[in-house]
# Entry
Amino acid sequence: MTAKILIVTGDAAESLEVLYPYQRLREEGYEVHIAAPERKKLRFVVHDFEPGFDTYTEKPGYTWPADLAFSEVDPGQYAALVVPGGRAPEYLRNDPELRKILKSFFDTDKPVAQICHGPLLTAAVDALRGRRVTAYPALELDMQTAGATFQDAEAVVDGTLVSARAWPDHSAWMREFLTVLRAKAPVT
# Structure
């Protein structure tokens, strides 16, 4: 049976941070499902930098259907979890169904890949305390408040947790995550 991987996201997630791991993990042979607050067509965004702006800008991105609602997810059916960034984590961290899912993955020490603002979700279930992580650099204080040691690096591996700063770090992030996956949940 092919190992299944869950991506948890919602509207305003960064397009590349959802679709790159989705395609890369499928290419590797994993079955990948996307879960969101409800089954619907999700609207992703594109974050980029423009001259004259102090921070990134946001533009409409791709749309993509959610396979499952958070309430339909059985975490025991999945070998690993991917937590993309964008603005979605800001509101998703308040979803009690999603917090149950996240907690289950950390309680069972399953591989988790998080990127950009995704660590706001794992911080919401107190899963970062005592760990080394990276995230979008503006979240350094949030990561420290969550009890993590922040490292400004392309990818940081702490046990089964693999984190990255943002979409420019995809190659390093997925390379490290696949190393963890091959050890903990190989494709069969």
In short: The CA atoms of residues 94 and 128 lie 17 Å apart.
